[in-house]
Design goal:
3 helices; YaeB-like fold; four-stranded mixed β-sheet; globular; alpha+beta
Length: 114
């Protein structure tokens, strides 16, 4: 691919800038770490959940993205969700996982949400 690794939709930028700066930066870092493991599905947007503990309050979030074969991924939306919804995604292996022992993100591929 060219110099650009992925693209972000204007709506995604609007949503993520509403969050506390440390949380927004943490989400961006998680996207950078996990982008290679996100499944590719032509023609359909997908969702992956995550959790940020970058500030005192824990934030559970949902990222909507489009990752098609041989195209740059596009991140479409970022929204704050409740812990129950995050757990649903986690149980379906559609969540960015955090290893609590060493605070490193897992490299386990995320299942296709289609």
């Amino acid at each position: 691919m060219e110099n650009e690794y992925y693209e972000v939709d204007e709506h995604f930028v609007e949503q993520i800038t509403k969050l506390p700066p440390k949380v927004a930066l943490d989400i961006a870092k998680q996207i950078d770490r996990e982008i290679q493991d996100l499944p590719e599905v032509n023609g359909w947007s997908q969702r992956v959940a995550g959790v940020s503990d970058a500030v005192d309050n824990t934030y559970f979030f949902l990222i909507e993205y489009l990752k098609q074969i041989e195209e740059k991924p596009v991140f479409l939306d970022c929204e704050i969700i409740e812990s129950d919804e995050y757990l649903d995604y986690f149980l379906e292996d559609k969540a960015i996982k955090l290893n609590q022992n060493d605070r490193q993100r897992s490299r386990t591929p995320i299942k296709n949400s289609g």
